[in-house]
């Protein structure tokens, strides 16, 4: 059976980006190891909202572009903006705009560095779906910039358009919560920066309300974190950015050591690492 475009690019977006810096390494580890853990979330949202040929999707914080790729393979017209990590955006371009790889799967895709304003195109109809798939509800203050971002994006969409936000589930349903506490403890010298906190039930609703959106349903999705070995688990988790403050407060070697120790309870006999997690998404509407 011939693999779909999304399957071909699920773990490896391309080979043209050199492994030269920590930022490039982290971005590629995210694209090749960690981002696949969120595929059940992306798929559940796309299925529920019937993403397809009539969908004009704007992805905020699109990262390395896997969610956009999955939407594009369903026939959606996709636009992604990324303002925090240009290295991830470069990998998204390899995934969505590679020369000679689309064949009969020609995509209507645009990728820009910047915020929502970069996605303005007076020659196109307005968007009818906006996604913000970077999960919130894990680190203190990780949702603070999201509401203003959504406020700026909403005018680019039709009235009543779908907006999707994502967040971590409750800590008792997320095995990875115990591992993330390593980041909190090591980042203590930075005080509030990077502090882990339990996800609250209404985190996503609060963001939607502050952004002037109207909640219109929600769902939960199992997103287990499964890794081929301990090295992959450490690299994948470090690529999330959730340990950056800990690295800044101590050093990368110390963080890797303690992260590895925290993962040992989740190491299985065959050498794989497995942690069950639940993520939550909120569907809202522009007003």
UniProtKB/TrEMBL annotation:
Alphabetized SUPFAM superfamilies for the sequence: S-adenosyl-L-methionine-dependent methyltransferases
Biological process, per Gene Ontology: methylation
Record keyword Transferase present: yes
Domain of life: Bacteria
InterPro entries, sorted: SAM-dependent_MTases_sf
GO MF: methyltransferase activity
Keywords: Methyltransferase, Transferase
Disordered as annotated region, ranges: 1-22
Protein's recorded name: SAM-dependent methyltransferase
Native species: Streptomyces mesophilus
